[in-house]
Design goal:
By secondary structure, this protein is α+β, with helices and mostly antiparallel strands. The protein folds into 2 domains: about 5-145, Jelly Rolls, CATH 2.60.120; about 150-220, Arc Repressor Mutant, subunit A (Orthogonal Bundle), CATH 1.10.10.10. It is built from 7 helices and 13 strands. It has helices spanning about 5-10, 25-30, 115-120, 125-145, 150-165, 185-190, 195-210, and strands at about 5, 30-35, 40, 55-60, 60-65, 70-75, 80, 95-100, 105-110, 170, 175-180, 210-215, 220.
């Protein structure tokens, strides 16, 4: 039997649109199963398929999309909504495959029939969920727009600051951004660059004092967020 959690307690953003008198009822009744995902690669087929989907409660996940010899990567974490089984690139016009990996020990909350029973009575919970799904789409659009930056170090710095909006923590030393197990290869797949280019860009940013690398995959962002520059005109 799987452990259950009070989802609205662990994920209070689900109550953002719920009126105050209704919130205690949602907290008590929004009990959902929890599935642990150990660090490492995992197969979608090995996980349950709840009716609505899943929420990442804890951890970092990597989604890699393979299109022939090309690869792209998406970094996911707390509050992200997942429906791992809905994509089948094998039947697309241009075949593609998806690979999943837990970069850290992670926990997924299953949005099953009990979740739907609560949502039927309090639809504002569903609205909050849809808002988070739209945020994920906007983040992907942001990364696509960054591809227009010519220099890899510009793309890298803008990406790190954007990720810091979600997972960064302001300290006296700068904004501390933990990215455990996010290698230069992974960053390259997110940026549309190769690992050597990302490594060289990282070194240049360190020399400029824009970032600092610490153990455990932690980055420290210095100063203020960069202002994207207008790309050079092209014929």
């Amino acid at each position: 039997m799987r452990a259950a959690i009070e989802l609205a307690v662990e994920q209070p953003w689900l109550l953002d649109l719920v009126d105050e008198p209704t919130r205690p009822w949602v907290r008590r009744n929004l009990l959902v199963p929890l599935v642990p995902v150990p660090r490492g690669p995992f197969a979608v087929e090995d996980l349950p398929r709840p009716r609505f989907g899943m929420i990442v409660v804890e951890g970092r996940l990597l989604r890699r999309l393979h299109v022939g010899a090309y690869r792209g990567a998406e970094l996911l974490g707390e509050t992200d909504i997942l429906r791992l089984w809905t994509y089948d690139g094998q039947v697309a016009t241009i075949p593609a495959t998806v690979e999943w990996r837990a970069l850290t020990d992670s926990r997924l909350a299953l949005l099953d029939h009990r979740f739907l029973q609560v949502v039927q009575r309090v639809p504002e919970v569903m609205t909050a969920l849809l808002d988070r799904s739209v945020e994920r789409t906007r983040m992907m659009a942001f990364f696509l727009a960054l591809r227009g930056a010519v220099r890899v170090e510009d793309r890298l710095l803008l990406t790190l600051w954007h990720l810091a909006e979600r997972w960064g923590r302001v300290t006296v030393d700068g904004v501390v951004l933990p990215l455990p197990k996010v290698t230069h290869d992974i960053l390259g797949e997110m940026l549309g660059s190769r690992r050597p280019s990302v490594s060289a860009a990282t070194a240049r940013l360190e020399q400029r004092g824009a970032i600092e690398r610490r153990s455990g995959g932690t980055w420290v962002l210095k100063g203020q967020p960069p202002v994207p520059q207008e790309p050079p005109a092209q014929d």
